[in-house]
Amino acid sequence: MELQAVLMAAGGGSRMMDLTYNTPKPLLPVGNKPLIWYPLNLLERVGFEEVIVITTKEVQKMISTDPKVKLDVKMKLDLVCIQEDADMGTADALRHIQQKVKTDVLVVSCDLITDAALHEVVDLFRAHNATLSMLMSKAHEFTETVPGQKGKKKTGEQRDFVGVDGTGKRLLFMANEADLDEGVVIRKSIMRKHPRMHIKTGLVDAHLYCLKKSVVDFLADNKSISSIRGELVPYLVRKQFSKSTNSPKVIDETHQNLKKNDSNISSRDEELLHLTQERSCWNDHRGDMSDAYHGGRLRCYVHIMDEGICYRVNTLAAYIEANRLAPKLFDEPAVHPSAVVSERCLIGADSIIGASCQISDKTSIKRSTIGVSTTVREKVKVTNSIIMHGVTIEEGCNIQGSVICSNAVIGRGADIKYCLVGSAQRIEPDGEHTTASPHLMSKACSA
Amino acid sequence: MADCGEPDGPGNKDDITRSKNEGKELTKEEKQRLRKQKKHQKKQKERKNEKGPSETEKDKTPVSLLPPPQPVATQKAPSALPAPASAPIPVPASAPFHSSPAPSPADKPAKSKAELKAERRARQETDRAAKQPGSSSSGIKTKVPLSELNPVVKRLPEHVQVDDPAVVKRLAKKLERQQIPLRSDYGYKVSLFSHLHQYSRKAPLTQLLSIPSTVIHPSIVRLGLQYSQGIVAGSNARSVALLHAFKQVIRDYTTPPNEELSRDLVNKLKPYISFLNQCRPLSASMGNAIKYIKKEISNIPSQCKEEEAKTKLLTCIDRYIEEKIVLAAKAISKYAIEKISDGDVILVYGYSSLVNNILCEAFEKSRKFRVIVVDSRPRLEGREALRRLVQRGISCTYVLISALSYILPEVSKVFLGAHALLANGYVMSRVGTSQIALVARTYNVPVLVCCETYKFCERVQTDSFVSNELDDPDDLMVTRKGKTQLENWQDVSSLGLLNLVYDVTPPDFVDLVITDLGMIPCTSVPVVLRVKNLDQ
């Protein structure tokens, strides 16, 4: 087998607590499908037959019991549960399943929505015999106004500095602004080997990594690394140019420990590979006297997508943006066949109506997503909003640019603009709520 | 093979079924027909014996593989005779397959029905001519040229028939059967070369494969990628990488139940070879290596245990690489160093791993010489050769091929590497080599070609058009000062970009070929091939 897929679905969604305090992040509906469906669909399309899903017990329970959560994927899902309160990072989770990992892994995060051609990432991994290969995309500005946010969006996110070589494929440098004290520090050894480096800041890390098996084994020995993105990847990128004999001793040693039994096989094969490289006239750089890859054994590659959809749904803004774009990703009809839609209502072309909905007369639904089993009474205007499952919207409401979570009830005549209504909340009839009234979001509030 | 048995088969079967139905009495006409067939088959046996015992020995094996015809024990002798006698009929038809060279490792499908009918008609004509009174000797004589005519039906390899839609359709069907995606051609092809494939590097074959590749072994996918991206380039490197990948395939192979390793493993390798062919057309050295492996696999005795068989195969592969590539390089260096004298100015072209090896060894043996490296676009492989020579400390000069006639008066010897040596003495090498040989001949500079014997090929070619490789035409685009002039070459209807990879040099321009068997003239290549065939 070539690659094993591992889906990380145990994250808490700490940056959008408003949405995730009731529904775990992997099961948030995006375009009326649970968020976890998107990476699973990506893996299935590409040809995977089995996926190891690392998730919490709550999510596992909901997947198996809740009828609204339908994951119609044909792949075999191997659900591994970890404790919610164990505060495990992604690398810790990978260490947890080390026994199941038998070959190289493809680690995907559950909040990734993309239509990228995965073969580009995997080809870099295969062709150059790389240790790490990842996917990044040019960040897009979010244009939608986020409910509950007053004024302009503040760039709370700190920038990532990514250094690539002239071809744009080899990853030379990666650091987050938080880790840098004053300026970007680049070692002379890197500059000597790669005199031309492009440093990019406007990139979104898709959290899709191809890792060699030896890295997983290395993680098992080094318990101090707890996050793939935060610690492992920068470590590997730095290790490419480490002074210690050009090959990371730690990773090499574990590699050799595993191959102790068939050491003669691997050494003979290494000789052949060395012979091949010696006889081949290819070099990845020119201008100096060194061999291909500068004789380094650890290589990290990145594929940067120029165009196409690539979102990580970990903030509210990203969530809303993803809901807008989700219909483009699958060809199901916008209006679910089981929804009861009366004739005298206006449903825009870019709206999605979920299953078993009831849309009454004289409603207007534009650029919105209506969840499963939602009831919309007469004369309701829904614009630019996301309505989750089981919501009841009474007559005459006007909902604009808002997010209404599951099982909420909007009283008649309510006027909601750019708000976020929490799960199972009741909005009093004839209320007017705009961004200025934050009390809608809190669970404790009773209306 | 069963197809070839058909011409007389249905006739026999009809006879037998009819006689079965109507009882044991054969009618007069049927007896006459059976007698005629017997005579005809006897004559074919004679013809077969004329050809020589070795071929019949080779052909006996397919004969024995034929399923025994209907065991009609109750039949009279005449009906029993045609059945085994029908066995030799596929022999002359199969003999052409065995005796004709098989340059491409692709499968050869059985002859079409039309060709079989034509053969049958031809045979009937000769029979009628032979029946003339007293013309038995002339009958045999007339049969000899016909037997030569029949095997002449050689099948062209499909990779030089891309403009023939029937061939392309057949290839597509074969790939579909093997579950390998078909790589589509890219861009406008220059009309003289429209019979060859032209692929784009930006459209790798892997985008049509599933990502954890299950149909094709992962090491083969990796190898195909490395071929198509040019990471493994050069005939020796490609062969070694191929054998390395095959070692991994053999190691991961398990014989399915009710199958024999010797037959099943060969069948497993066929789709991999098609896949590699789609990524980049196979080189002659790779073809020979594949032939060797297939022969070794089929020679494994059926009672051999799987582990034993696998280790045997792995050691065979290691030995092949050791003998044919590593030791051959050492032997060639030994001979070539005799030809390098102090004060020599040696010209090399592009990157040849063998020539580089020779020069480095000569330098270590303290010969005093300097090297001129000639390079050409778009590959610019000479830069890599230059780097490796300068790293050792050899003093080098670097020119492009356009400056060749300027620099040649300084040169005392030319060393060239080869991709393959053809059976008529022509040298197939990187495009530009024949130019170098031509200009060197004009200046009376000796040209020495260094080539291992495993690259000797039974193909015959006199020009570079018939069989070649077209590389990605986008490689010819170059960006200078931020501008790429040829960026929109596809929009210009009368413009075609041609990126040839190989060319053939006639033997009159080559003075000596240095192989691991010694230093031979170019025209002795068929002798070496014959000696090799006898050995095997």
TrEMBL record, chain A:
Pfam families, per the entry: LbH_EIF2B, NTP_transferase
InterPro entries with a match to the protein in the record: eIF2B_gamma, LbH_EIF2B3/5, NTP_transferase_dom, Nucleotide-diphossugar_trans
Biological process per Gene Ontology, one example term: central nervous system development
Record flagged with keyword ATP-binding: no
Intracellular or extracellular location(s): Cytoplasm, Cytosol
Sequence ranges assigned to domain EIF2B subunit epsilon/gamma LbH in this UniProt record: 338-429
Gene Ontology molecular function: guanyl-nucleotide exchange factor activity; translation initiation factor activity
A GO cellular component entry from the record: eukaryotic translation initiation factor 2B complex
Superkingdom of this protein's organism: Eukaryota
Domain Nucleotidyl transferase: 5-140
Annotated CDD domains: eIF-2B_gamma_N (cd04198), LbH_eIF2B_gamma_C (cd04652)
Keywords linked to the UniProt accession: Acetylation, Cytoplasm, Initiation factor, Phosphoprotein, Protein biosynthesis
Family: Belongs to the eIF-2B gamma/epsilon subunits family.
Function recorded in the entry: Acts as a component of the translation initiation factor 2B (eIF2B) complex, which catalyzes the exchange of GDP for GTP on the eukaryotic initiation factor 2 (eIF2) complex gamma subunit. Its guanine nucleotide exchange factor activity is repressed when bound to eIF2 complex phosphorylated on the alpha subunit, thereby limiting the amount of methionyl-initiator methionine tRNA available to the ribosome and consequently global translation is repressed.
Subunit and partners: Component of the translation initiation factor 2B (eIF2B) complex which is a heterodecamer of two sets of five different subunits: alpha, beta, gamma, delta and epsilon. Subunits alpha, beta and delta comprise a regulatory subcomplex and subunits epsilon and gamma comprise a catalytic subcomplex. Within the complex, the hexameric regulatory complex resides at the center, with the two heterodimeric catalytic subcomplexes bound on opposite sides.
Protein name, UniProt field: Translation initiation factor eIF2B subunit gamma
From TrEMBL, chain B:
One GO MF term: translation initiation factor activity
Assembly information from the UniProt record: Component of the translation initiation factor 2B (eIF2B) complex which is a heterodecamer of two sets of five different subunits: alpha, beta, gamma, delta and epsilon. Subunits alpha, beta and delta comprise a regulatory subcomplex and subunits epsilon and gamma comprise a catalytic subcomplex. Within the complex, the hexameric regulatory complex resides at the center, with the two heterodimeric catalytic subcomplexes bound on opposite sides.
SUPFAM superfamilies assigned to the protein according to its UniProt record, in alphabetical order: NagB/RpiA/CoA transferase-like
Keywords on record: Cytoplasm, Initiation factor, Protein biosynthesis
Gene giving rise to this polypeptide: EIF2B4
Main location: cytoplasm
Function: Acts as a component of the translation initiation factor 2B (eIF2B) complex, which catalyzes the exchange of GDP for GTP on eukaryotic initiation factor 2 (eIF2) gamma subunit. Its guanine nucleotide exchange factor activity is repressed when bound to eIF2 complex phosphorylated on the alpha subunit, thereby limiting the amount of methionyl-initiator methionine tRNA available to the ribosome and consequently global translation is repressed.
InterPro entries: IF-2B-related, IF_2B-like_C, NagB/RpiA_transferase-like
Ranges of Low complexity composition bias in the record: 94-107
Gene Ontology CC terms: cytosol; eukaryotic translation initiation factor 2B complex
Segments crossing the lipid bilayer: none
Basic residues composition-biased segments: 33-46
One GO term of the biological process aspect: animal organ development
Source taxon at top rank: Eukaryota
Family statement: Belongs to the eIF-2B alpha/beta/delta subunits family.
Coiled coil: none
Region (Disordered): 1-146
Cellular localization per UniProt: Cytoplasm, Cytosol
Record-given protein name: Translation initiation factor eIF2B subunit delta
Lineage: Eukaryota, Metazoa, Chordata, Craniata, Vertebrata
Organism: Oncorhynchus kisutch
Short name of any one Pfam family annotated for the protein: IF-2B
